[in-house]
Amino acid sequence: MQATQWLKTILAVCFLSTAGLPAAVQAQSCASYTYTGVTPAFTSTYTNRVTFVNNCADSAYVIMTTPADPLSEALWANATVPGNSITKSNVGQHYYFTNQIPAGGSQTMCLPDAGAASGNFTFSFGCTAIDTANTGLPMTCLIGSDPGKLYNGMDTVFELSPGCKYYTPPTQQNPNPDNSQCTYNPSNPSATLTQIDYLDVSAVTGFSIPMGLAIADSATYQCTFPSRTLVADLASCPYENFTTLSTKYNCPEVGTANGGQGISLQLMNQTPGWTGYAAACISPVQWIAAVSQHLPGVSSTCSVNTTPTGTPQTSGIPTIADWYGCTYMLQAGDDAYPLTCLTPGCGGPQCAVGPDGTAANYDPGSYHYNTAAISRGKSVAYTNYVTTLKAMGNEVYTWMYDDGPGTLSCNVTGASMTVTLCPGQAGQKPYDIATQTWSYNATTNRCVVDTAGTYANQSACMAANGKYACSSETESKAQTGTTTWVTATLNYCKPLDPATATAGQLAAAVSLAACRSSTCQRTGTVSYNTPAPQDLLLLGN
Questions:
Q1: What is the pTM of this model?
Q2: 222-251 burial string, b = 16+ CB within 10 Å, else e?
Q3: Which residues of the chain does CATH 2.60.110.10 include?
Q4: Is Signal set as a keyword in this record (predicted)?
Q5: d(Cα 198, Cα 273) in Å, to the nearest integer?
């Protein structure tokens, strides 16, 4: 995931306005759409492919954010919703399904057969009004984006880029096939989208609700995974302190807040009468770059700059916000050359070095780069936010370059997909952390929401019951024009999957506390001249 992608989903910035888009697009079945903003005009048919299932206790608005590219926006804006309509807001590329999905209900959506780039979907529940005077979006919500609130944009996100049904790959006999029926790629307008579907569940910015993503007949469509699930608990939202954040972050609260536990990443609802409800668990960079500036009692000396006095940023030196947001390159395009592009915006391995790590410490003649344990660099990849989500068994995007477990792709476009809000027991209220309870499922080695459960939160449930091993994940970046890869190997305490683990692995499993006290999450390296690696399972650490 590129760093700009998560910024798009969290900030209501001023985007370009596209003239001629409908205020509401309504249809009972999928139809075609012709975009006249190019010559010749571009027409795409649509196919009903996405079903949103609301398993939560409250009705839900589906809110869609599109790219600023006019064709991409128009294709998404006309992704007709049978029996519903899509309404444009007042803040650029933001739309919402006019009719809410009731608790226990579902809603289907058509996707353009020509493909479409980067459609992002969030969900707001129990909203009582529409912010007609400002954003034009649903407001005063129990949970989810809420205009004017501190947690607006801090959501669980479903990200989707459907491929082109008509795409023909180049061959030796036909090196330049006619793919004019496919949508052009906004990142490279001279090329079109291919036949590959890309989709994921993301907690990069933060998370609000649990979400499940399942692909029907995933083998036929050559998908990397049949499903991805975020079973996230707002009551288990962690703290961050100077054991996980760099002391270069000039903010006293990190070391002193909450009785020394550090800063809390949990945000509570700001609506009168609902202040006992949780609204979101935010990633550390959101606290650093945005939220901390609006919280009462936070020191005015807190600075995103890495200099101890908080003076303006020095050119060429990433800030603390850059490091925990995986942003900043000296110039655009440098990330194609990870051997020399070393700032956190250059890719997963570079960002994983962290603000306390040593970038570009190559050892000539060997494969090793920054051979000291990478966790000592205190990068975003080893924050409590990320390690907690992984310890709960979530295989979704937890940080900006968490591509290995996060990305779900299908090499053949056309698969039907189901997005379930609050998967598991029906009628969940993820915001009501005072009453929601959890129980352990030995079959899956996971803890689930259960009204008959005896645990107050997911973390306590997994700590008491979960069977863990040290698992290795890799994030790689290729050097353009060579066979060289720069690869970060990151080790995490993750629950075993009884369906795939061997008897020996299950027998060697340890508790979460034992895994965390081992060397597992205090190890890891960055190397170069390595092949593109696969995720591994490390036992006995």
A1: 0.90
A2: ebebebbbbbbbbbbbbbbbeebbbeebbb
A3: 46-169+177-232+392-428
A4: yes
A5: 40
The CATH number of the domain covering residues in 46-169+177-232+392-428: 2.60.110.10
Alpha helices, H only, 242-316: 253-256, 284-289
Q: Which DSSP state fits 100?
A: P
Structure tokens, 387: 């390690």
Give me the helices (H) in 401-480, please. Answer: 403-406, 458-465
* Phi, psi (deg, nearest 5) at residue 120: -110, 135
What does each C-alpha distance from 310 to 251, 296, 433, 471 come to in angstroms? 10, 20, 37, 38
The tokens for 114 are 């020509």
Whole-angstrom distance, CA of residue 242 vs CA of residue 284: 12
**Inter-CA distances, 323 with 72, 269, 306, 353, 534, Å:** 30, 28, 10, 9, 25
Q: Which residues contact 480 (CB under 8 A, 6 or more apart)?
A: 336, 337
Q: What is the phi-psi region of residue 144: left when phi exceeds 0, alpha when psi lies from -120 to 50, beta otherwise? A: left
Nearest to 288 by CA among 236, 342, 248: 248
> SS3 letters for 465-522?
HCCEEEEEEEEEEECCCCCCEEEEEEEEEEECCCCCCCHHHHHHCECHHHHHHCCHHH
Strands 278-282 and 206-207: what pairing?
antiparallel
> Helix 384-391 to helix 458-465 angle, to the nearest 10 degrees?
60
pLDDT in tens, 207-229: 999 999 999 999 999 999 999 99
pLDDT digits (tens, 9 = 90+) for 146-189: 998 988 999 999 999 999 999 999 999 999 999 999 999 988 88
